[in-house]
Amino acid sequence: MGTPHFAAIATLIGELRGAGPPSNIYMLIQNKVTLARALSKMGYCSRREGEKLVLEGRVSLKGKVITDPHFWCVPEKDNLRVDGKLVGKKEFVTIAFHKPSGVVTTREDELGRKTIYDVLGEMGQWLAPVGRLDKDTAGLLILTNDTQLGEKITNPQKHSAKTYEVRLGKPLDPLALGAIRSGMSLDGEELLPAEISTFEKNEPGYWAEIILREGKNRQIRRMFEHLGNLVLELRRTQIGKLELGGLEEGKWKYLTRENLALLR
After folding, report:
1. Which of 41, 58, 160, 219 lies 20 to 30 angstroms, CA to CA, from 227?
2. How far apart are CA 135 and CA 106, in angstroms?
């Protein structure tokens, strides 16, 4: 039996892994990545920001300016530079941030609202948020320059648990609790079952803890609105097994290797 042709093998791998045409798989085997992906992989910026830098003509390989974000390269060998400065692989940094309410999870806001980067200052300059919390939601937010870590945490197929503390306008009745626990239909979309329990707190309102394994836009607020209740306060207290703990609002802390293991 003869040796299988490379293209046939590559096509099969592509079909199994969704990597695309054989030429792309050949590049991957050669340890090549696209230029925008290279900037992200090396912790310089996000892939989208990398595409913008390339299109602006600010990125070069081996002394030649490249304006195609999908140009293939080996970043460690091709003398990758941005604005003439050599890009080296950065040390990965990941932090836990207690996002305050009233702050948006974006780098710039067209409406001029305060962003998480206004709160973080210089610390957040090269870090990207892993997922989002809406403006009126406080709590645990992870920021990192490790894009692979971010992709693992936000992978929807993992159904990672995220725990929230919610203050409601009125008590939850058994029907509402049952609907949340069994999985609701919301705006024509089926939601995964969620864990929920009520508890008492030395503050006004009716309190509950809810654990989601998906992250739809404003999901918790929309769920309770659908059930005829009003969310007065919402805070994320845990991602995976990593707890917000006593981290004060507006403060951040470095995550250790042991901390990161709790996220996986």
Report:
1. 160
2. 10
Q: What is the DSSP letter of 146?
A: -
Concerning whether 83 is annotated as a catalytic residue, the answer is: no
Judge residue 171's burial from the number of C-beta atoms within 10 Å of its C-beta, 0-12 exposed, 13-18 middle, 19 or more buried: exposed
Q: Which of 118, 134, 173, 187 is catalytic?
A: 134
- What are the φ/ψ torsions at residue 50 (nearest 5 degrees)? -65, -40
Q: Torsion over CA of 31, 37, 39 and 41, rounded to 10 degrees?
A: -60
Provide the 8-state DSSP code for 38.
H
Q: What is the pLDDT of residues 10-50, one digit of tens each?
A: 444 443 444 444 445 544 445 688 999 888 877 788 788 89
Domains of the chain, with CATH numbers? 19-86 (3.10.290.10), 94-156+244-262 (3.30.70.580), 161-239 (3.30.70.1560)
Q: Shortest CA distance to 37 belongs to which of 72, 6, 7, 88?
A: 72
pTM, two decimal places: 0.70
**Per-residue DSSP letters for 60-78?**
EETTEE---TT-EE-TTTT
